[in-house]
From TrEMBL:
CDD domains: fer2 (cd00207). The keyword Cell cycle does not apply. Pathway: Alkaloid degradation; nicotine degradation. This is Xanthine dehydrogenase YagT iron-sulfur-binding subunit. Residues 4-80 form the 2Fe-2S ferredoxin-type domain. Keywords: 2Fe-2S, Iron, Iron-sulfur, Metal-binding, Oxidoreductase. One of its GO terms (molecular function) is oxidoreductase activity, acting on the aldehyde or oxo group of donors. The keyword Iron applies. SUPFAM superfamilies: 2Fe-2S ferredoxin-like, CO dehydrogenase ISP C-domain like. It holds the Pfam family Fer2. It comes from Kutzneria buriramensis.
Length: 168
């Protein structure tokens, strides 16, 4: 099939990459850039393990073609921390046991970073009351994080970690 060159800025580093037009963003980042933190779970966009940020918005990267991200800013789990200092979401996951096996954790963390930004920007969720601003309580956090599954069932720690990071 066809091949094209795409330019991706991944975690602040610009890359020109020759890719098959059918290659997903997830496979491109994992196989071509050797950034393997983002996981391939279901490869159908249902589990959220592959969640990355594209121009600051969360995407399930197993469904996004690399060519659709041409010229865009991509942040993977490897780009969330500030060098040796963990992002507040990462620190909260460590402090509050927001993980068990850790397979879904990169996607959970990327999604949580986006959730906090969406909340800060005033975006409502499906459970936000129409007549009042949303409080980032447990119900809001669970709804906003609902696209990320955890087979271990570490949801209590995940919700607590997102809440703690929101306070930071």
């Amino acid at each position: 099939m066809g091949r094209v060159e795409v330019t991706l800025t991944v975690n602040g580093v610009r890359h020109a990459i020759d890719v098959d037009t059918r290659m997903s963003l997830l496979d491109t980042v994992r196989e071509r850039l050797a950034l393997t933190g983002s996981k391939k779970g279901c490869d159908q966009g249902q589990c959220g393990a592959c969640t990355m940020l594209v121009d600051g918005r969360r995407v399930v990267s197993c469904l996004q073609l690399a060519i659709a991200a041409d010229g865009r800013e991509v942040t993977t789990i490897e780009g969330i921390a500030d060098r040796d200092r963990l992002h507040p979401v990462q620190q909260a996951f460590v402090d509050l046991d927001g993980y068990q096996c850790g397979y879904c954790t990169p996607g959970q963390i990327c999604s949580a970073v986006a959730v906090l930004q969406e909340y800060s920007d005033g975006w409502p969720s499906a459970v936000t009351a129409a007549d009042e601003p949303a409080a980032l309580d447990e119900v809001e956090i669970r709804e906003r994080m609902s696209g990320n599954l955890c087979r271990c069932g570490a949801y209590a720690g995940i919700v607590a970690a997102v809440g703690r990071a929101a306070e930071a």
